[in-house]
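Example 457, ligand flavin-adenine dinucleotide.
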Amino acid sequence: VGAGIAGLLAARALADAFDSVVVLDRDDFDDEGLARPGVPQGRHTHLLLPGGLNAIEGLLPGFTADLIERGGRRGDVQERVLMCVGRHRIASGRCGADLVSGSRGMVESTAHRLVSRVPGVEIRPGTSVLDLIVGSDASRVRGVRVAPRDGGPVEELAADLVVDATGRGSRLQEWLGRRGYAVPGESSVRIDERYVTRRFRVPRERDRGLLVIAQGGSPANFRSGIAAHERDDVWTVSLSGYRGDQPARDLPGFVDFAHTLEAPYLAELVDGAEPLDEGASYRFVSNMWRHYERLPRFPSGLLALGDAVCSLDPVKGQGMSLAALQAVVLRDCLSAGPDGLAERFFPAAAAVLAEPWMVAVSAHRDRRRPRQPRELAGAGFERYLDLLVAGAVDDPRLAADFLRTAALVAPSSSLLAPRTAGRVLLRLADRARRARTGQQRGGLATGADPAIRVTQQ
Ligand SMILES: Cc1cc2nc3c(=O)[nH]c(=O)nc-3n(C[C@H](O)[C@H](O)[C@H](O)COP(=O)(O)OP(=O)(O)OC[C@H]3O[C@@H](n4cnc5c(N)ncnc54)[C@H](O)[C@@H]3O)c2cc1C
């Protein structure tokens, strides 16, 4: 249910195990992958991280080549992404992880095209899913109740397995609750980030062949922005603020906001660039994780993945990649047979989500607030990461190690490898020596984005 990234990739995984896979979505689709009502975030800058790209390529061979054919550019993250934290640029080099540019619409419509060619898969647009069909003892889901989006008779569609990929607005908890199932506990970290995105035409001589310009905030200035090459000479530029601080949507206000960021690169990109649209806004309220993996009882014949389970701070650009990695988990679980699917799938998918969740939550923890006891375990690592990112500004090897984890091609634990830890410790020693001798060094101000409220159940 849902033909977004998660639903399409789940369909690909299911097609190896089932004769017939029907993907239902209430929206209509076009070849351009333009923003559609069911995906209001679709007009905003979306990066497909290398870890997600590799996962999609594994599920849909030819995906990368198709994106490039449609005008995307391919390049090493460390070489072609200009990334800043506050005023400071992370050291350039090569980290061995490739990114391909392309809008969210391009990513989705490319996957849509490839999935629709998989034997046994049918994608049915204009169809709203209204509810589950559950067996008389409620232990098994037997299908879904559907209706044409624009009105018409309700139909029952039988299925051996229903996969909820309806995104953050999923109604699965409500559907399960009505059948006497426990509602999964939900972790939530409120961030209230407001985005405005505009598209611009930028000649290649001006963008220097870059794929992305990412300017994160710092404790001195929480405003941030990201620009991504979309195709040919088109770029999308998203600016964001927190706690009611919102970029203007009109062109002069938008450009002015870009000038208030700590580093100058985004302002340089948009200054005088030809605008291609009127802009779009989005308010992202909270990181959210529904813990299906903790439920003691779950009906058979039902799964959920993608934003329907976990929706993370867009600043890290992880959502589509995590959907892809969960689809790989689904494929692997299905290859071991149908028995106890939910009991195997949800914990394995949660293992994929745990680290990105930790990174997203940690970025929004107010470091002036005393830690809760359960946060203490991560405290040392958080501090270590601050030092490492500070080092990544002038040490290309530290930058490469950091970027490989941000790109989801290496786990965070790889940052504790002796080679990396040694370089971080050298920096620590250097910092201590300078503090003793009163010397200054042009360092990076590290710290968290503004945190507002953390609740965990
Ligand atoms: C501002 C912003 C920027 C982002 N930037 C990035 C980024 O740079 N990189 C990244 O990887 N991620 C990013 N994300 C996150 C990313 O958009 C999501 O993680 C991703 O789209 C989740 O895909 P999904 O398929 O799970 O859900 P969705 O994309 O939300 O798709 C859900 C689908 O279900 C359909 N649907 C819903 N209910 C029903 C129903 N009852 N019946 C039938 N169909 C239904 C909808 O029409 C839709 O097609 C960003 C998010 C935001 C808000």
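Summary: The pocket of flavin-adenine dinucleotide is lined by residues 1-7, 24-27, 38-39, 41, 44-47, 128-129, 165-167, 195, 282, 284, 306-308, 314, 317-321, 323 (CB under 6 Å).
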